[in-house]
Amino acid sequence: MHHCCCSILLNRSLQDSLDYYTLLKSESLKINRAQVYIFASSNLFMKPVTLIDKNQLELIINRLAYQLIENHDEFADAVLLGLQPRGVVLAERIKDRLKQIMPEAEIHLGSLDITFFRDDFRRRDEPLKANSTEIDFIIEDKKVILIDDVLYTGRTIRAGLDAMLSYGRPSGVELLVLVDRRFSRELPIEPTYIGKSVDSIDSQRVKVDFAKNTSNDRVLLFNTELADE
Amino acid sequence: MSSLSVKHLLGIADLTQEDIRLIFSTALNFKEVINRPIKKVPSLRDITIANLFFENSTRTKLSFELAEKRLSADVVNFSSGSSSVSKGETLIDTVNNILSMKVDLVVMRHPNPGAAAFLSRNVDTTIVNAGDGTHEHPTQALLDVFSLQQKLGDVAGKKVVIVGDIKHSRVALSNIYCLQKMGAEVMVCGPTTLIPKHIEKLNVKVEHNLQKALEWCDVANMLRIQLERQGGEHDVKFFPSLREYTLQYGLTLPMLEQLNKEIVIMHPGPINRGVEITSEVADSSHSIILEQVENGVAIRMAVLYLLASAIERN
Question: In terms of DSSP H, where are the helices of chain B?
């Protein structure tokens, strides 16, 4: 039944879908039936599937905050650095949670824009618009926790590492992501802290929606034709 | 919108208000970059830029070169004094020879008005005009208006007077275009001989009395007297003597203190101290002359970044 859905709704040939399903089923990837269902159903209705809803997001941010505390105690030597634009929002949420847990601790949070460090300049039709970088602390000899919403090819993080290094030489760097799209890396970059691992295909997009009042926070899985961005 | 409507930067006349706003917002990002401990970004690392200066320049050349290096572009420099131009080579030949060494972008200053536009029609490369004779100096105008915007918040509705040698000044023409496109009112002030005829056609006010001009304006842009363009030894001079010019059009601190308002003082450099502006004024808190220089690098980075993104990869 699953390959049937895949083939019709991904507009792929039946053989392609069969291959894909076999791939998904293979032991090595350890993908369960429910996850396959996400692909199938997302295509079935041609509308985005919610990967993480508001309540799950709260739980995830809570867990990530405790994982960070486990590794960095009171954040005496560690700083948070969110990547523009949505990594910054996630970083702010995490910082807020950390402050609730440890009201005494002084937690530094900066935002980093990577536009000028990207490796796809002149490979796009239009130049990218840059965001602002605000780092009002010194990262030299600090443990930097880079924060982004979705980890996909790893190229954004590569650019982020370069951009960060123009502010100094940290003693260590960790990576925290809300969504890790597995098996799609183009560079050898892996996260230290993961909100949720997702298996998706290249034609799909994961979009993190942070609402202003947090009530509508969610993470969606789109098919490319529908993704508006 | 995140790309320019033009392929070359030949003059402000070709730009739209959106283009100027895009350059300003990009420059703001680069201003942050050049205040980092490491002031370099790798954006243009596969671009080679030739700086062709057929006329002397210190600030503009240095500013362009810094902007290029901070964007990680490869840079070659050329000054007419030490080149084959003195052996009689034509401009197109010189530039085509340089381009065959695989140069992607040309920044050019030339003593002839229209040189940049001429080159853009005859050679296949992206041209940035760094001043063409008495015609335009677009990056100077962009950095002037950007500096004003940083100082005043918005230039729309502000009154700007440009004082001095308007006739020979490419800075004046570019500034008039740029200020008007951003919604400012412009007045020019200087001796009759140095104000071009029919300049009112550009919708600028004309005033010959500096004191009256200062009372009208929010900003005064004091241009340098271009001693090299005042005619030869035997020509008729545009004004009797420097001393007389200074007496009538030199800006002094007492003149500013007499006004019942604060005005911003700008100068594109290089300053002839004691001629168009006294040292006290140039170094006072009214002046944003050094901010203009700092913003110059950010503006030029923005222009190069935006133009380079349209260059095809080969």
Answer: 17-33, 59-70, 91-99, 115-122, 138-152, 170-181, 210-216, 242-249, 253-258, 279-282, 289-308
Locate the chain A residue with the closest alpha carbon to B34: A166
Residues of B in contact with A138 (CB under 8 A): none
Q: Is B247 buried (19+), middle (13-18) or exposed (0-12) by CB count in 10 A?
A: exposed
**Chain A interface includes B36 (CB < 8 A):** yes
CA distance B224 to B219: 16
Average pLDDT over residues B252-258: 92
> Which residues contact residue B235 at a Cβ distance below 8 angstroms, ignoring those fewer than 6 apart?
none
- State the CATH class of domain B12-137+294-308: alpha beta
pLDDT digits (tens, 9 = 90+) for B168-221: 899 999 999 999 999 999 999 999 999 999 999 999 999 999 999 999 999 999
Over 70: is that where the pLDDT of A226 sits? no
Chain A contact for B42 (CB, 8 A cutoff): yes
Q: Indicate which of A111, A115, A116 best probes the interface with B, i.e. most B CBs within 10 Å of its own CB.
A: A116
Pick the CATH number of B138-288 from 1.10.150.130, 3.40.50.1370, 1.10.10.10, 3.40.350.10: 3.40.50.1370
Measure A214 CA to nearest chain B CA, in Å.
29
Chain A CB within 8 Å of residue B313 CB = yes
CB A164 within 8 A of CB A170: yes
* Contact with chain A for residue B126, Cβ under 8 A: no
pLDDT at A9: 39
| Contact by Cβ (8 Å): B42, B22 | no
Q: Which residue of B has its CA nearest to A164?
A: B38
| pLDDT at position A15 | 45
Fold of A53-223: Rossmann fold (3.40.50)
* B314 vs A: CB within 8 A: no
Higher pLDDT: A35 or B229? It is B229
Write out the two tokens for B108: 């050019």
| Least CB–CB distance from A122: residue in B26, B71, B311 | B311
Partner A contacted by B209 (CB < 8 A): no
Residues of chain B within CATH 3.40.50.1370 domain(s) are: 12-137+294-308, 138-288
Q: How many CB atoms lie within 10 A of CB A14?
A: 12
DSSP annotation of A2 reads H
pLDDT of A28 above 50 = no
Question: What are the boundaries of each domain within chain A?
Answer: 2-46, 53-223
Integer Cα distance of B52 and B54 in angstroms: 6
Q: What is the mean pLDDT of chain A?
A: 78
Query: What distance in Å separates residue A147's CA from the closest CA in chain B?
Result: 21
Residue A111 · residue A163 · CB < 8 Å: no
